[in-house]
Amino acid sequence: MNINYIHKIVAGIALTVVFSSCVKNENSFGYEYMPDMYRSPAQEAYVDYGEVRSWKSNDSIKNTQSAKLPPMGTIPFQGVNADPAYSMPYKRLPSKAMIVSHSAMSLEYSDEDYDASALDVNPMRMFESNVEHGKQLYTTFCDHCHGEKGAGDGIIAEKGLIVPPSNAFTKAEGQMFYSITYGKGDMGSHASQLNQKERWQVISYIKSMSGGVVIPDALKTLEMEKVTDIIGTGSTVELLPETLAGH
Ligand code: HEC
Predict the structure, then answer these.
(1) Which residue's CA is the closest to the ligand 1 atom numbered 40?
(2) pLDDT averaged over every residue in the chain
(3) What is the pTM of this model?
(4) Contact of 49 with 70, CB cutoff 8 Å
(5) What is the structure's pLDDT at 75?
(6) Which of 146, 173, 181 has the most ligand 1 atoms within 8 A of CB, as the residue to mutate?
(7) Is the distance from CB of 123 to CB of 135 less than 8 angstroms?
(8) Does 184 contact ligand 1 (Cβ within 6 A)?
(9) What are the residue boundaries of the structural domains of the chain, listed by start?
(10) Ligand 1 center to residue 85 CA distance, Å?
(11) CATH 1.10.760 applies to domain 94-203
């Protein structure tokens, strides 16, 4: 085989490669070598990334939104936490000391808001489903320090690591909410573990431990006055003058 013949073959292959990139579809890029090098797949919010390229798909990430954590202060409008009454930003600010000790995420502070929070009323009624859910949350997030009955004798306290006071749960409900939200002393903030609704549910459970009257779920659809007729006014939770449906 002489050298000219080899040149012809090489030139022929090169021409085939070059012209095979020409395709009839004017929207096509033709054949590309390593296309990722030309165009990186742009990350866009809310795109179904199951389909990475028309010819290559990754089903494990199909239907996965690329948008992950929403920005701070975002209010959910769908899903289990959609209830706007519980999703609005907490109106009380952490104290200046808390911002330092607990890295509370706020640029503003108020050294009066803890005291003021004593006036905040639990917006949720003591329905058994709320109390029951509160109990589950308490068992998961609080029991190990505060103990099963809230006497400050959880397993961590038994080991002498962190010992909560035995009267922690005698505080006003609003103050409990404040401390669960921002933390207090050796107790960290539980705002990332419990949404606002769940914090109030835990407080309802805490109230039920010390004798707060639990209302049967069956009474949810009744008018407020009728519920008061049935359970009396002995409840430690102040009932607000509106219908109970939806809470
Ligand atoms: C790591 C242990 C620990 C965990 C977990 C914990 N706490 Fe506490 N808690 C404490 C300590 C310690 C205090 C006392 C803080 C102080 O007054 O310095 C306290 C105080 C409190 C108080 C009284 C706050 C006040 O204003 O005086 C409440 C209410 C409370 N905790 C509720 C809870 C709830 C509800 C949970 C679960 C969601 C929880 N804690 C989880 C350790 C813990």
Answers:
(1) 142
(2) 79
(3) 0.69
(4) no
(5) 77
(6) 146
(7) no
(8) yes
(9) 94-203, 213-247
(10) 25
(11) yes
Residues β-bridged to residue 187: 184
- Report pLDDT digits (tens) over 91-136: 899 888 888 777 666 678 899 999 999 999 998 889 999 999 999 9
199 in ligand 1 pocket by Cβ < 6 Å? no
CA of 66 to the centre of ligand 1 (A): 37
Take residue 168 and report the two structure tokens written for it.
Answer: 């922690």
Sorting pLDDT into bands at 50, 70 and 90, what band is 60?
low
Which atom of ligand 1 is found nearest the CA of 165? 14
Atom in ligand 1 nearest the alpha carbon of residue 193: 38
Q: Which residues contact 200 (CB under 8 A, 6 or more apart)?
A: 86, 122, 123, 124, 130, 177
Please state the rounded mean pLDDT for residues 27-52.
63
- Tell me, what amino acid is at 151? A
SS3 percent helix, strand, coil of the chain, rounded to 5, is: 40, 5, 55
Distance CA 180, CA 185 (A): 11
